[in-house]
Amino acid sequence: MSTITLTENETMDRVTTEALVENLKDLWDAQRGMIPLGNIRRLEVTNALVDTGATTLVLPTRLIRQLGLNKTRDKTVISANGSGVIGIYEAVRLTIQGRDCVVEVMEVPDEIPALIGQIPLEMLDFVVDPQGRRLIGNPAHGGEQILELL
Prior knowledge:
Blueprint: E1 2-4, H1 8-11, E2 16-23, H2 24-31, E3 42-50, E4 57-60, H3 61-67, E5 71-79, E6 82-96, E7 99-108, E8 115-116, H4 118-124, E9 126-129, E10 134-137
Parallel strand pairs: 1-3, 3-8, 4-7
Antiparallel strand pairs: 2-3, 2-6, 4-8, 5-6, 6-7, 9-10
């Protein structure tokens, strides 16, 4: 398991969280007995940046390679740097604070940290506590993970 850590200066005034990212196909293969549990490709990201302006889970190229993910398509994106095309990769299981969800991965250059975007936050039912600079369970749901269908 690999660990990625941001420096102290990179985490100032930002909300970060620990996240476990696992290759979903490996999890399925292990469940079917096709590979040993120890062969599941996974990464522990100790300081993933929570970015409510990002749409989904965003990983640098080097982490995508470590997870062995395949590109599924390209998508047009708009960022602070303008518009462009970005790679979308196979889904992973993302686990934060004991809650997990399945989400596709968006690729960014290696100098950009792992980002937890709005879709996984919604799926995991977390909100940002700006004063505590941390993720908390949605207070509207008593802090419990609840998926809204409305």
